[in-house]
Automatic annotation (TrEMBL):
Family: Belongs to the novel plant SNARE family.
Classification via InterPro entries: NPSN/SNAP25-like_N_SNARE, Sec20_C, T_SNARE_dom
Topology relative to the membrane: Single-pass type IV membrane protein
Pfam families in the cross-refs: Sec20
Domain (T-SNARE coiled-coil homology) ranges: 145-207
Protein keywords: Coiled coil, Membrane, Protein transport, Transmembrane, Transmembrane helix, Transport
Coiled-coil intervals: 45-72
Name of the protein: t-SNARE coiled-coil homology domain-containing protein
Highest taxon listed in the record's lineage: Eukaryota
GO biological process per UniProt: protein transport
Record-annotated membrane-spanning stretches: 217-237
Amino acid sequence: MASDLRMNAEMEETDGEIQDILRALANGFQKVDKIKEPNRQSKQLEELTGKMRECKRLIKEFDREIKEAESSNPPEVNKQLNDRKQSMIKELNSYVALRKTYMSSLGNKRIELFDLGGGSGDPTTEENVQLASTMSNQELITAGTKTMEETDQAIERSKAVVEQTIEVGTQTAANLKGQTEQMGRIVNDLDTVQFTIKKATQLVKEIGRQVATDKCIMFFLFLVVCGVIAIIIVKIVNPHNKNIRDIPGLAPPAQTSRKLL
């Protein structure tokens, strides 16, 4: 029951939208009669053509909703809805024919004819869109040539874009390769610097150990010299001290005998 109410609400909403567009079409064609300039008339007809396309879409939507609710609606309701749809189609077709008349009077040779059909049982006639053209052969040739030229220009522009893209990609690949090589050289330089720092550290440690060894040797030499100097001083001050051995070259002076008078 809820789904039936929802379907009916959707159909009523679609019906209202279609009626709004049909009223807008009626007012629009009345404005076309009052417009004297061909360019403004053509622009107005283009706007009305867009509304007719939208109306055609809504009528298709309305037809789909009718078919979805057909099993739940009584036959008389389905008949009323189908009659309503056919009335909309006829009114839209009348505006299509009116548009064709205006376009012909404006000298526009391209005509789009909407044919939504008259029978409810044939969906192909309801959705059929016919394109008619009254352009002369020379106009067709001119239009075709112009289209081909525009297509060629578009192809040339596409080729230029592709070539630029390839060139940019090649340049980018070259830059990436150069940057990769540069990064490799930087890594090698870092390894060299690290090895040099390691060797310098070892050399500094060795120099430090050597300096420490030299200082120790000098200190011991200083102690020896100080000891020798101390012994010499003591020996000079107290030459009869037997606890201190005589140092070669520093023997006490020989005592001279006194002559008795």
